[in-house]
């Protein structure tokens, strides 16, 4: 996952590239390892300040999709 994020230019650029720029500030405040990122839940994101359901779902999907690229 770390390599995938590095290819994308880092977590912030990856978030913007998948249309989730609103999460950049949230993730800048929190320092996550790649493993922690893969295990984020909808509830975790809500606790971090991401209250809108749609963007949280999209982020969980995007993280899972990125993680699946490692398996494939």
Characterization of this structure:
With 72 residues, the chain is mostly helical. It is 68% helix and 0% strand. The chain has six helices and no strands. The longest helix is centred in the C-terminal third of the chain and has 19 residues, at 53-71. The chain is globular. The two termini are 12 Å apart. The model has no long low-confidence stretch (mean pLDDT 88).
List the helices and strands and how they pair.
Blueprint: H1 2-7, H2 11-17, H3 24-29, H4 34-38, H5 42-47, H6 53-71
List key phrases describing it.
mainly alpha, 6 helices
Write a concise synopsis of the structure shown.
The chain is mostly helical and 72 residues long. Helices cover 68% and strands 0% of the residues.
- What would the principal axes of the Cα set say about the shape? globular
- Head-to-tail CA distance between termini: 12 Å
Structural class based on helices, strands and sheet pairing: mainly alpha
Tell me the β content: under 5%
Query: Low-confidence stretches at least 5 residues in length (pLDDT < 50)?
Result: none
- How large is the radius of gyration? 11 Å
Q: What's the number of extended β-strand segments?
A: 0
Major β-sheet annotation? none
What is the helix/strand order?
HHHHHH
Overall pLDDT metric: 88
Give the % helix.
55-70%
Total DSSP helices: 6
């Amino acid at each position: 996952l770390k390599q995938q994020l590095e290819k994308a230019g880092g977590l912030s650029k990856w978030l913007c590239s998948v249309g989730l720029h609103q999460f950049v500030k949230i993730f800048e405040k929190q320092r996550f390892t790649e493993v922690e990122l893969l295990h984020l839940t909808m509830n975790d994101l809500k606790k971090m300040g991401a209250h809108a359901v749609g963007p949280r779902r999209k982020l969980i999907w995007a993280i899972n999709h990125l993680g699946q690229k490692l398996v494939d």
